[in-house]
Specification:
The structure holds 3 protein chains of 3 kinds.
Chain A: H1 3-6, H2 10-24, H3 30-57, E1 62-71, E2 74-82, H4 84-107, H5 114-133, H6 137-155, H7 162-193, H8 208-215, H9 225-240, H10 249-252, H11 258-267, H12 269-279, H13 281-285, H14 294-315, H15 320-342, H16 344-371, H17 384-387, H18 389-403, H19 409-423, H20 429-453, H21 480-495, H22 506-511, H23 528-551, H24 563-567, H25 569-576, H26 581-653, H27 660-683
Antiparallel strand pairs in A: 1-2
Helix pairs in contact in A: 2-3, 2-5, 3-4, 3-5, 4-5, 4-11, 4-16, 4-21, 5-6, 6-7, 7-9, 9-12, 9-14, 11-16, 12-15, 12-16, 14-15, 14-20, 15-16, 15-19, 15-20, 16-18, 16-19, 16-21, 18-20, 18-21, 19-20, 19-23, 20-23
Chain B: H1 3-21, H2 25-45, H3 49-74, H4 84-106, H5 119-128, H6 131-152
Chain C: H1 3-24, H2 28-52, H3 60-90
Helix pairs in contact in C: 1-2, 2-3
Classes of the chains: A mainly alpha, B mainly alpha, C mainly alpha.
Chain lengths: 684, 160, 103
């Protein structure tokens, strides 16, 4: 076994260790924290690249297991594994992470909690890399929870803001609902297969024998055990990846600092759900019959609905980061759809390309916010094209990649998902949902970019009372430490797609462990070209529509109603209020929980509390009787005894006269007596 | 038993009794160092050269100096002579102790041999067999050093 | 008289002198000196038993004394520091006046 496989654990441990060191440093050691975090991340990136290079030649699964905990006669083993899926994720997470770390140095430069920020960020990176290499669902779950914790800490990083604190709590609780499912699935998987190791020389839970046993074991309603477990695990993935109906936390999570949104809530952590499904794909896909398993079917529907649903809401949002957040939810839906209809490679390809262009978009948004001194409402921006040229160009590249503009990375990966959805033999509806989502994606991104970068600065339309919200004309390009990561990410966002084109599906074949061949004829297979043409046209339509509504006649004042609002006010308002999902949760789930708590409070107060008062009353009655006996009979005798003890103590205290030498002489005399006694004894 | 032993023994006993009876405390300390040197000589005489040197270094070199410092710092050079009653009291306890110990020793049995303790042997044993105790003693000395400094430091004004 | 007995008698005498002094002198420093004498008597015993005992090649006696000397040095340092602290607090090192622990 080669060095890199044996020492794969170093990749997550380095950032985690850096986090531990930073946590010990004082808040003023800013440079130390930044250098340590970036240095450890660079080392992780280097090791990840080594691991990646290794898998290029050895695409089979390699793993190292070690016993961790013994209970009864069985050992719980932990371990790490390396296969192409792991290697790709490792490189992506550490590379994007490193760029975002560098960017954060600029973005957080004026924050007083700079050191704490890097501590959390490093811990996050360590746990995220831990998820990627885990060869054990329990170990993965532990890292998963650490990731959730750091997400909570970082969303609430500016905890002085009530909105941030509330968003952090919401994110934690909503993802916890999903994690409950994941935990149940894990328990069930353990009881069904007897192990939580993914791969263990044929004994792992993702290997043939265990999967076959679970797939043939029916539970209820036509579900097999494997599908039921997979669906429970998907609950966790849906919570983390913001799938409908657990998506509500992700837009609120934008209260955190923008690098956090880029790293955790766009590129890596939310993708962890997709990765989890990809990791347990043998379990998810296991079916006895011919068609796809029930779990895959559910995932496909959830993914397709999420993709369209979130895209709709994104159309009517005004906060630059919130638009991107809904776009992330929508793209995560595409990934899930891709996983379900096309397999691991299809979903993972979109995950990787999305990580790059969405991180780019978030960092670009951060640059805009940084330049506009904290303003996040796109309707109050405008005309930034000339003031922030680098940000504008890179943002435009990210936007085109996200829309799926031909030849940009998003085009290839999204097209492949739509193509697979088209081929899906159960239903054509997911394909149409996805296509509609693509149209909306192009539209809302055009809307956003028109608002932010085109037109004229709209600060003059501000009411006089709120000058601080105005975009100052002095908004300048961000420092180089922030623009360089943007440019690097833009490069990848534009060109990364070429590693997975239909003519040369290197990425897909790499994940499947096969060498890729270059073949133009693959374009003609199964009506691929017409589909590509259709989706290109859809993108163009979306872009044109957006330009026609927002670019042609730029909105000149922030207060002026949105063009779409003038046209369809009812729908627009519904979308602006995010289709009232939060309100629905408020009146349903939250209200029920509150009602339950009121009922239990009543029970507690009147039934349990009443019985306790009864017992207390009884006890105090007994104690009154006791007191009478005590004071009349027992006290007298006790007082006498105490007096005797005091007199005896006075006598003995003469010995304790506080002089050390007296004590020492007692010791000497005792020695004499003792030795004398011993000698007499030995005489017999 | 050879004559150097008796000479050294006499020196030691003389030093010890002087240290415990003289009135001037600096004199007492000097007598104590004579006693320690006598003991060091006895160690040499008994074949424990290393210990003899250690005795001189540690006791005569360090402990006696410490005591002198303590005498200077507590400004207690001259003392009134011990009250006769106390001296008698000390003798009353000490004499039976000696008597009983001497009785015990004179009635015991012995096995005479001729050992040698070279310093390299001591070092070897100390670094192998007694390594842990050695480290612990090192730690103890450090702790005692710090503790002595802390105890002897000026008391802070507790009320501010 | 055999040599072991002579050594042991010597150390017993030394011990008794130390004990007598520690009991009769009033100065805390002199009491400490008495205690040092007793410690040295014990060390002398160790050496005598090593020299004339059954297994001298083990060097147990020697090593015991080495550690004992080290600990005695620590004890002397702490003891004298205590005396200084006591002196600073009570303005005396006369043990007969230090009886605040009187019961």
């Amino acid at each position: 076994m080669v060095w890199i496989v044996r020492n794969l654990w170093l990749i997550p441990v380095l950032p985690a260790f850096a986090a531990a060191l930073i946590s010990l440093a004082s808040q003023s050691r800013r440079k130390f924290a930044a250098y340590l975090a970036i240095g450890s991340m660079s080392c992780s990136l280097l090791l990840s690249l080594l691991a990646f290079a290794h898998t290029l030649h050895h695409p089979s699964v390699e793993f190292v297991n070690f016993p961790w905990l013994q209970f009864g006669a069985t050992w719980l083993a932990f371990g790490w594994l390396l296969n192409p899926l792991t290697a790709v994720m490792l490189v992506m997470v550490s590379f994007v992470g490193l760029l975002i770390f560098v960017y954060s140095v600029g973005y957080m430069a004026h924050d007083e909690n700079f050191t704490r920020f890097f501590c959390f960020l490093s811990l996050f990176a360590g746990a995220m890399l831990g998820i990627v290499i885990s060869n054990n669902l329990l170990l993965l779950f532990m890292n998963w929870e650490i990731v959730g914790l750091t997400s909570y800490l970082l969303i609430g990083f500016w905890y002085q803001r009530p909105a941030a604190a509330a968003a952090a709590k919401k994110a934690f609780i909503v993802t916890r609902i999903g994690d409950l499912g994941l935990f149940l699935g894990m328990m069930w998987l353990y009881s069904a297969s007897g192990t939580l190791l993914f791969y263990d020389n044929g004994a792992g839970c993702l290997e043939h024998s265990a999967i076959a046993a679970m797939a043939s074991h029916g539970v209820a309603l036509g579900l097999t055990a494997s599908s039921a477990i997979a669906l429970l695990i998907f609950c966790g993935a849906a919570g983390k990846s913001g799938q409908v109906p657990l998506h509500v936390w992700l837009p609120d999570a934008m209260e955190g600092p923008t690098p956090v949104s880029a790293l955790i809530h766009a590129a890596t952590m939310v993708a962890a759900g997709v990765f989890l499904v990809a990791r347990v794909y043998p379990l998810v896909a296991a079916s006895t019959g011919t068609g796809p398993s029930a779990a895959l079917e559910v995932i496909a529907w959830v993914g397709a609905i999420t993709a369209l649903f979130a895209a709709c809401i994104a159309v009517a949002q005004n906060d630059i980061k919130r638009i991107l957040a809904y776009s992330t939810v929508s793209q995560l839906g595409y990934m899930m759809l891709g996983l379900a209809v096309g397999g691991v490679a299809v979903g993972m390809f979109h995950l990787i390309t999305h990580a790059f262009f969405k991180a780019l978009l978030f960092l670009g948004a951060g640059s805009v916010i940084h330049g506009c001194e904290g303003e996040q409402n796109i309707r109050r921006m405008g005309g930034l094209r000339k003031l922030m040229p680098v940000t504008f160009i890179t943002y435009a590249i990210g936007m085109l990649a996200l829309c799926g503009f031909p030849l940009f990375s998003g085009f290839w990966s999204k097209d492949e998902i739509l193509f697979s959805a088209h081929q899906w033999n159960l239903s054509a509806i997911p394909y149409y949902l996805g296509t509609a989502g693509a149209l909306l994606t192009a539209f809302y991104m055009t809307r956003q970019i028109c608002y932010v970068f085109f037109g004229t600065p709209r600060e003059k339309a501000q009411p006089v009372g709120l000058p601080e919200h105005a975009v100052s004309l002095e908004s300048r390009e961000s420092p180089a430490v922030m623009t360089w990561p943007l440019m690097i990410l833009a490069f990848f966002a534009a060109l990364l797609g070429f590693i997975g084109t239909p003519a040369w599906p290197w990425f897909q074949e790499f994940l499947n462990g096969r060498p890729a061949a270059f073949d133009f004829r693959l374009f003609q297979a199964n009506g691929l070209l017409p589909l590509m043409a259709v989706s290109s046209i859809i993108v163009f339509v979306g872009l044109a529509l957006g330009w026609w509504l927002y670019g042609r006649q730029p909105v000149s004042a922030a207060e002026q109603p949105d063009p779409l609002e003038r046209w369809q006010p009812g729908i627009f308002h519904a979308l602006m209020h995010r289709l009232y999902v939060d309100q629905i949760y408020d009146v349903s789930v939250v209200r029920i929980a509150r009602w339950l708590s009121i009922v239990s409070e009543w029970i507690d107060r009147h039934i349990l509390g009443g019985s306790i008062r009864l017992v207390a009353w009884f006890v105090s009655g007994i104690s009154h009787v006791d007191f009478l006996i005590d004071s009349s009979f027992i006290n007298t005798g006790f007082d006498e005894g105490c007096g005797e003890i005091v007199r005896g103590g006075r006598l003995l205290s003469r010995l304790q006269n506080g002089r050390v030498q007296n004590y020492l002489s007692v010791l000497g005399i005792a020695l004499v007596v003792f030795v004398f006694y011993l000698l007499l004894g030995s005489r017999g | 038993m050879n004559s150097p032993f008796f000479i050294l023994a006499a020196l030691t006993i003389f030093g010890a009794s002087a240290a415990m009876t003289l009135r001037n405390m600096v004199h007492c300390t000097l007598a104590l160092s004579i006693c320690f040197i006598g003991i060091a000589g006895l160690y040499l005489n008994l074949g424990a050269q290393f210990l003899g040197l250690a005795q001189v270094l540690v006791y005569v070199g360090a402990v006696v100096i410490l005591i002198v410092f303590a005498i200077l710092l507590t400004r207690s050079g001259e003392l009134p002579s011990p009250r006769p009653s106390r001296a008698v009291y000390g003798i009353i306890v000490a004499a039976p102790t000696f008597g009983i110990l001497a009785w015990a020793m004179l009635t015991g049995a012995t096995v005479p041999v001729q050992p040698q303790a070279h310093i390299d042997q001591i070092g070897r044993v100390m670094m192998h067999h007694y390594l842990l105790p050695l480290e612990i003693v090192g730690l103890l000395l450090t702790a005692a050093l710090i503790g002595a400094v802390v105890i002897a430091m000026e008391e802070k004004q507790s009320t501010k | 008289m055999n040599p072991l007995t002579a050594c042991l008698l010597l150390s017993a005498l030394l011990f008794s002198i130390g004990l007598g002094g520690a009991l009769s002198r009033r100065s805390a420093i002199l009491v400490l000196i008495g205690i040092e004498l007793m410690l040295n008597a014990a060390n002398l015993n160790f050496i005598a038993f090593w020299r004339f005992g059954p297994h001298p090649e083990n060097l147990t006696g020697i090593l015991f004394v080495i550690f004992s000397i080290a600990i005695a040095a620590a004890e002397a340092a702490v003891g004298l520091a205590l005396i200084l602290a006591v002196y600073r607090h009570f303005k005396t090192s006369d043990l007969s006046r230090l009886n605040s622990m009187k019961g």
